[in-house]
Amino acid sequence: MDMAKSLILSTVVLAVCQLALAAAQWTPGTATFYGRPDGSGTTGGACGYDNLYTAGYGMLNTALSLTLFNNGTSCGQCYLIICDMSRPGGQYCKPGNTVTVTATTLCPPNYAPPYGGWCGPGRSHFDMSQPAFENIGIYQAGVIPVLYQRVKCSRSGGVRFSIVAGGSADSQSQLLVNIQNLAGSGSVGAAWVKGDKTGWIQMSRSWGANWEALAGLVGQVLSFAVTSTGGQYIQFLNVAPAGWQFGQTFPTNQNFNY
Q: Signal peptide position in this chain (predicted)?
C-alpha cells in the first residue's frame, strides 16, 4: 500500500512539474539525435566552428531546424530542454532530467517527406548529439517531444577569434573571422575589426558565425569589437599580432554577461 501511494504521489509530482514548465512559457518542440555515442560526428557544420572542443562547446550540442537557426543568427545560443511526458512519445522520456545544449549547426529540411521533415519550415526541432539526447530521452525512441527555452550561456575562458583559412579569405582584400565561445546570449549581433593602421571597420555576417570585412589587414595588429545579441558591447584590443596567419585562432580574457 505504501508503495502504491508513493507511485501515485510521484505521478502527481511529475504532472505538477509539467504544468509548472508550461506556465513558465516554455515552447513545445521535438528532438532527434545524430553522431556517435561519444559525441563525435557532430563537429563542423553551418556555424563554421569546426572542432567543437577547441571552439569551447564540447559534446552537448545541437543542430537547429531551419526556423530556429534563423540564417545563422542563433549560432552559439544555449537552450534548456526537457522531454515532455504529456505528449505522444512521452513514454520515452527520462523523467525530471534536463540538458543545456549549444546551437552549433543547421539541421537542413528534407523535402522528400511532407513539410520538409522534422527540420522543415515552421518546426521547432533539435537534432542533438547522442550524449545530449540521452540525458533526457531513451535511445530507442529516435524522436521525442520536448519543451525548451533559450537560456544564458556559461563558457570557460574568453571569446575566441579564428581567422578562417581557404577561399577568398586568403586574399589581401578580405578578412573572414569565426567568432567563438561567447557567454551570456551566446551569439554575435554585430562585429567590427581594426588594424593598427586603420579605424574601426564594420563587419558583416558571411555565414553562420563567420564575419567578414572587405579590407586588406594582412601584416597589421588586429583588434575586434563585438555586440552580442543580448546588446552588450566589448572591445577586444590587440588580439592578433602583426604576424598572424590564416587558420590561426586567438583567445582573449574577456567574455559577455548578456
A: 1-24
Cα 122 to Cα 248: distance, rounded to the nearest angstrom: 38
Which cell is 178 given? 569565426
SS3 state at 126: strand
Say how many C-beta atoms besides its own lie within 10 A of residue 131's C-beta: 20
Whose cell is 512559457? That residue is 25
DSSP letter for 46, please.
Answer: T
Q: Report which of 99, 202, 199 is spatially closest to residue 148, judged by C-alpha positions.
A: 99
Provide the 8-state DSSP code for 104: E
What pLDDT sits at residue 167? 60
Query: Do 229 and 150 form a contact (C-beta atoms < 8 A)?
Result: no
Contact between 61 and 132 (Cβ < 8 Å): yes
Say if residues 17 and 26 touch (Cβ distance below 8 Å): no
What is the spatial distance between Cα 22 and Cα 78, in angstroms, rounded to a whole number? 19
> Could you give the C-alpha distances from 66 to 118, 121, 123, 180, in angstroms and in order?
10, 6, 8, 21
pLDDT-based confidence at residue 226 (cuts at 50, 70, 90): very high
